[in-house]
């Protein structure tokens, strides 16, 4: 019930963590799209599992997902998550970006991925405040809750953008 009054602060904090990008709306992608509820009009949230965006189905087959094709089509600027939904363990997945250190970058299929540093302190505070509770309903404040969604923070550089 607190989310509507926390949207601006939550959005302001995420913009700060993303390095104050100028282009709006900011396009982000992650699995936990519930974050939409805490973000304002300055964001577009895309689903990495395709449950809320049928465009992803154009990039999926029975064994893997071409996330790079999807990220390019949707012009995603930032990843907040790096899942692997592939059944084929040899297929490239976003999970491979999990090993990047802050500042490191890697390119694949024309898209460059750059890891942004995340301060783990707010996540630890949120864990302490919300032990045993669903992470998007209770606890301290929206700014701490934001960090629950910060599994990974990766900037995408598209050659066409």
Could you explain how this protein is built, in words?
This protein has 161 residues and is an alpha/beta fold. It has a six-stranded mixed β-sheet with strand order 2-1-3-6-5-4, with helices on one face. Helix content is 22%, strand content 16%. The protein is built from four helices and six strands, in the order αββαβββααβ.
Secondary structure category: alpha/beta
**Domains (count):** 1
Shape, principal axes of CA atoms: globular
Q: Strand tally, please?
A: 6
Low-confidence stretches: 136-140
What portion of residues is helical?
10-25%
* Strand order in space, largest sheet: 2-1-3-6-5-4
Sheet bearing the most strands, described? 6 strands, mixed
β-strand percent reads 15-25%
* Backbone CA Rg: 16 Å
SS summary, helix count: 4
Distance between the termini: 37 Å
Task: Indicate the mean pLDDT.
Answer: 84
Q: Give me the strand/helix succession.
A: HEEHEEEHHE
Layout of SSEs?
Blueprint: H1 3-17, E1 26-30, E2 43-47, H2 67-73, E3 78-79, E4 105-108, E5 111-115, H3 121-129, H4 142-146, E6 154-157
Parallel strand pairs: 1-2, 1-3
Antiparallel strand pairs: 3-6, 4-5, 5-6
Summarize the structure.
This protein is α/β, with parallel strands linked by helices and 161 residues long. It contains four helices and six strands; from the N terminus they run αββαβββααβ. It has one domain (3-157).
What characteristics describe this protein?
globular, 16% strand, single chain, 6 strands, 161 residues, alpha/beta, 4 helices
């Amino acid at each position: 019930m607190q989310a509507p009054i926390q949207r601006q602060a939550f959005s302001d904090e995420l913009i700060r963590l993303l390095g104050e990008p100028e282009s709006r709306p900011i396009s982000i992608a992650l699995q936990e799209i519930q974050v939409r509820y805490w973000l304002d009009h300055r964001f577009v949230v895309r689903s990495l599992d395709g449950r809320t965006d049928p465009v992803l189905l154009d990039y999926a087959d029975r064994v893997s997902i071409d996330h790079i094709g999807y990220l390019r089509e949707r012009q995603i600027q930032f990843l907040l998550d790096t899942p692997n939904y592939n059944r084929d363990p040899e297929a490239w997945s976003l999970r491979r970006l999990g090993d990047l250190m802050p500042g490191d970058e890697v390119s694949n299929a024309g898209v460059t991925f750059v890891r942004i540093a995340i301060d783990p302190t707010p996540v630890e505070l949120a864990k302490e405040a919300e032990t045993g509770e669903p992470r998007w309903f209770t606890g301290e404040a929206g700014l701490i809750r934001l960090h629950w969604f910060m599994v990974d923070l990766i900037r995408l550089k598209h050659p066409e953008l």
